[in-house]
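Let us work through a complete example step by step.
Step 1: write down the sequence.
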Amino acid sequence: MRRATAAAHYRDVGVTTRVLGASGIGLTTILYEELADALRRAHRADSLATAGTRALAMIAQLDSLLDNVPADDFTRSMRAIHAQAARETAAALRENAPKRMQFALAAIQPIAEAWSSLRSSA
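Step 2: predict the structure and record it as tokens.
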């Protein structure tokens, strides 16, 4: 097994283990943490396509979680942030410009940190 493949496999096992033991706040926190991690990895040129595509899928999943929440200012703000991150990620992939991932990460990182602090205080 190649080193990169083995690392990806063990990372996936780690995420699966965390997901199986989490619920509610924990699951949302994991999604945001994994999204931030994917955006960081996509920032490296050698991981752009794989991590960028993974990030787009996670953004879509997080946005779909808002379908069951009443439409209010918070929901609209979250959708706007998700849309901004998705646009930046898609542009980075389209232009083969990994440095653009910093803009998507800048949109997502504060949310990931906020969810992480919620999980810590729960």
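Step 3: interpret the result. The chain has a mean pLDDT of 83.
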